[in-house]
């Protein structure tokens, strides 16, 4: 899908879902976000800025590996950093709830 200008997150969400159509990409994002939460909590407990940086870098490593090598597309965060972060959190929660595949089927019918 080609990125366009989005005025609201709800308009952006179908695009975001389409950029994460491959189940492996979604799993990599899930584990990257899960990893991020763990390392951020540890960084806060230990008051370690280095761990905080590691948290962000490691989360992006999981996600971007999925985009560049699995999905073969450009991460949406490069064009839409705020909406992309919101999309990541929604996708993470929907994955926990077992509802993300429904979203993919809704917005990416050819998958």
| Proportion of beta-strand residues | under 5%
Low-confidence region ranges:
none
What is the CA-CA span between the terminal residues?
Answer: 13 Å
Overall average pLDDT: 94
What is the number of strand segments?
0
Which structural category fits the helices and strands? Answer: mainly alpha
Rough outline: globular
Proportion of residues in helical segments: over 70%
Oligomer: single chain
CA gyration radius, whole angstroms: 14 Å
Secondary-structure element order, N to C: HHHHH
Give the helix tally: 5
Model description:
With 111 residues, this protein is an all-alpha fold. It has one domain. Helix content is 74%, strand content 0%. It has five helices and no strands. It has helices at residues 9-18, 23-46, 49-71, 81-97, 100-107. Helix 1 (9-18) packs across helix 4, helix 2 runs antiparallel to helix 3 (49-71) and helix 2 (23-46) crosses helix 4. The longest helix is centred in the N-terminal third of the chain and has 24 residues, at 23-46. It is globular and about 45 Å long. The mean pLDDT is 94.
Record the SSE blueprint:
Layout: H1 9-18, H2 23-46, H3 49-71, H4 81-97, H5 100-107
Helix pairs in contact: 1-4, 2-3, 2-4
Task: Spell out the key features of this protein.
about 75% helix; single chain; mainly alpha; about 110 residues
């Amino acid at each position: 899908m080609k990125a366009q200008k989005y005025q609201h997150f709800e308009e952006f969400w179908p695009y975001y879902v389409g950029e994460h159509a491959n189940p492996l990409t979604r799993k990599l994002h899930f584990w990257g976000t899960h990893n991020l939460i763990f390392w951020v909590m540890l960084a806060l407990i230990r008051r370690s800025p280095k761990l905080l940086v590691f948290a962000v870098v490691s989360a992006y490593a999981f996600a971007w590996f999925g985009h560049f090598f699995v999905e073969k597309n450009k991460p949406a965060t490069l064009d839409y950093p705020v909406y992309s972060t919101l999309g990541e959190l929604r996708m993470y929660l929907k994955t926990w709830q077992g509802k993300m595949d429904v979203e993919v089927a809704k917005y990416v019918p050819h998958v």
